[in-house]
Design goal:
Blueprint: H1 18-38, H2 49-52, H3 55-78, E1 87-88, H4 97-109, H5 122-136, E2 143-147, H6 150-174, H7 184-188, H8 192-200, H9 204-213, E3 226-230, H10 236-244, E4 251-254, H11 264-276, E5 281-287, H12 299-310, E6 317-322, H13 342-351, H14 364-371, E7 378-381, E8 394-398, H15 436-448, H16 456-476, E9 478-481, E10 484-490, E11 498-505, H17 511-524, E12 538-545, H18 546-549, H19 554-559, E13 571-578, H20 587-610
Parallel strand pairs: 1-12, 3-4, 3-5, 5-6, 6-7
Antiparallel strand pairs: 2-8, 7-8, 9-10, 10-11, 11-13, 12-13
């Protein structure tokens, strides 16, 4: 494939490619307008020139213009300049021109991707996007789709796990010959692949009966066991447990280490203890790109653990929450979508110009985790995060396409079983009506940038390199404000592209004082103190509370001189940057902003010190 210049795919912080974007958008609008005009040209227009010239029509047009101007003023006044190199905050950044154009163009057709009848064009695009997801994660028999966001995808994953794991109990009631001689314990520990095989052997009538007696009946859901997640989980997992009836009391959180990865030894011990109590494991979630830290759990070790327990007759569903970090897998795939051996990865990264600094690479830990994603049952992946596609475009992909039958519903007015459309999406998803424009946006981005090292790999590389530049800057930053020396302390080296850090006044040993300083800094550099467009630097923040994070940050706070007690009520307030800006990978570009960032930080810290108690 020919080389891609990523800079040609961005409008640019200073609208450097603004005219290109306008010309492409104008062309697409002209295409749509021509399409309307050319359909049955013998039909007369229904809005006459006389009406268009009438006072009421013109008055309405003026009202439209006035409202649009007000909308423009409000959006420009209150929006965050996330396209700027001064923005080091939440998961938002420049989006790709092909994705923007796809979304705008898709909206003009207003297709509803719940059924092929309502979206003959966009449904086909979404089907192809789902296949793209399957290729990204090396699922040869996989299937995926776009949904509103990662929360919906996570909810759908738990829905899959709940229904699939309950099928053996339902088979015992409806088709006992399929599971003859097996105890309930054995049925609750049946391998996912075996359950799918049995489900696929059923006739349509028998499958409907089995599904009716499965967890969707509302019975015996608690018997399915525990849903295990890391302490760094996204909050949507508790909502998903609530909504699906699994219940938050069935959710177990595993502590994380000082790199904010799930502790595998604790996970193993937890499964052992539960199994000894004859408590089944409904499923386990590993995270690739935690929302607070950007950490990548040891997916490979979780997969190895699953294989080990399978030999003991203990089987569970395995989901990877890659809402944030899923697109990172493109960096280890060659142009044929084969996983690049780690021994060859450095050469391939250099050949494909993924990193500007040739010393940059992917750690062996992260490589093995990304590689092992091919072994999990389902994956959440959000194009509207690291796919650089406009909101809303979340996504989910399953390893075995047949598994979707465990959650399917067919509404007769939407899905006619007597007709075999080219694609069927609606029966197998949680949502009803959904925008075909999102499918057009993701499809366009994927066609310009393949989901491998030649395409999105370069996007991911830029973001990771920008994070490493920012990490180095923050690790070395010292400023003097109001006669006090303030140092920045980075909490850990980023797995992906998230950088967390704190400011502390030299000599301060009080955690509360340091937390207040960082909380005040966040308020001054966020929307919460007003007028974000006028701020010289913007960032985000989070809290690492003892209740959820345990002692994972204790070594860090002790290392920087904090001596306050770390007890059940303690927390660490950190500043947090999702470094999605695709221009800060360049060492010279970043260097040109270092002085600006340093001066901006000093300016913001000054009133923060005055707010100290």
């Amino acid at each position: 494939m020919e080389e891609i210049d990523v800079n040609a795919l961005l409008i640019g912080g200073k609208s450097e490619n603004g005219e290109l974007f306008k010309s492409l958008l104008s062309h697409l609008i002209d295409e749509h307008l021509g399409w309307r005009q050319n359909y049955m040209p013998q039909d007369p227009p229904l809005i006459s020139p006389t009406e268009q010239a009438s006072p009421v029509f013109q008055q309405t047009v003026q009202r439209l213009k006035t409202v649009m101007e007000e909308l423009s003023v409000r959006m420009r006044k209150d929006s965050v300049p996330w396209e700027s190199a001064r923005y080091w905050g939440h998961m938002n950044s420049e989006t790709l021109i092909p994705a923007l154009l796809g979304y705008y163009f898709g909206m003009l057709w207003n297709e509803n991707n719940v059924s092929y009848e309502g979206s003959p064009a966009a449904s086909l695009l979404e089907e192809e996007v789902g296949r793209d997801f399957a290729k990204l994660f090396s699922f040869p028999n996989g299937w995926g789709h776009i949904c509103a966001d990662g929360s919906i995808a996570n909810l759908e994953a738990l829905w899959y796990a709940r229904n699939v794991k309950s099928l053996p109990l339902a088979m015992k009631e409806v088709k006992p010959e399929l599971v003859a001689g097996k105890s309930d314990w054995e049925l609750l520990n049946m391998p996912i692949e075996k359950i799918i095989d049995l489900m696929s052997s059923l006739s349509e009538v028998d499958l409907d009966l089995v599904k009716r007696k499965s967890a969707r009946s509302g019975k015996r859901i608690e018997d399915l066991g525990k849903w295990i997640i890391p302490a760094t989980k996204h909050y949507s997992w508790l909502k998903a447990a609530d909504i699906t009836g699994v219940g938050i009391d069935q959710v177990i959180m595993i502590p994380v280490d000082d790199h904010y990865r799930m502790k595998i030894d604790v996970l193993e011990k937890t499964i052992e203890d539960l199994s000894a109590q004859k408590m089944p494991i409904l499923g386990v979630v590993g995270v690739v790109g935690t929302t607070e830290e950007g950490a990548i759990d040891h997916i490979d070790k979780i997969c190895a653990l699953r294989k080990s327990f399978a030999k003991k007759g203990i089987n569970f569903y395995l989901h990877a929450d890659c809402a944030y970090g899923g697109y990172a897998r493109s960096i280890i795939l060659d142009s044929n979508y084969d996983v690049i051996p780690y021994a060859d990865l450095e050469h391939e990264l250099r050949e494909n110009k993924v990193f500007q600094d040739l010393s940059n690479t992917i750690s062996k830990d992260d490589y093995e985790s990304l590689k092992a994603l091919s072994e999990v049952d389902s994956i959440t992946v959000d194009p509207h995060k690291m796919g650089y596609v406009p909101y809303t475009a979340g996504g989910i992909v399953i390893r075995d396409e047949r598994m979707r039958n465990a959650i399917s519903y067919f509404a007769s007015y939407v899905f006619d079983k007597t007709i075999d459309p080219p694609v069927q999406i609606g029966p197998y998803i949680l949502e009803g009506s959904k925008a075909g424009a999102a499918a057009a946006a993701v499809w366009a981005a994927h066609r310009v940038l393949p989901l491998n090292i030649t395409g999105y790999g370069r996007i991911i590389g830029r973001s990771m390199e920008g994070a490493r530049n920012f990490y180095k800057f923050m690790s070395e930053l010292e400023v003097e404000v109001e006669g006090k020396k303030i140092k920045s302390h980075t909490i850990y080296y980023p797995d992906f592209n998230m950088v967390d850090w704190v400011f502390n006044v030299e000599g301060n040993t009080d955690l509360k004082v340091m937390n207040e300083l960082n909380q005040n800094f966040f308020i001054q550099t966020s929307i919460y103190s007003g007028m974000p467009y006028l701020k010289p630097i913007l960032t985000s923040h989070t809290d690492f509370a003892k209740g959820e994070y345990g002692d994972s940050c204790l070594d860090f706070i002790r290392k920087i001189g904090i001596t306050s007690p770390w007890d059940s009520s303690s927390h660490l307030t950190t500043l947090r940057a999702s470094t999605m800006n695709l221009m800060m990978y360049d060492a010279q570009s970043f260097a040109s902003y270092e002085v600006k960032l340093k001066e901006a930080i000093k300016k913001v810290l000054k009133p923060c010190l005055k707010n100290e108690k």
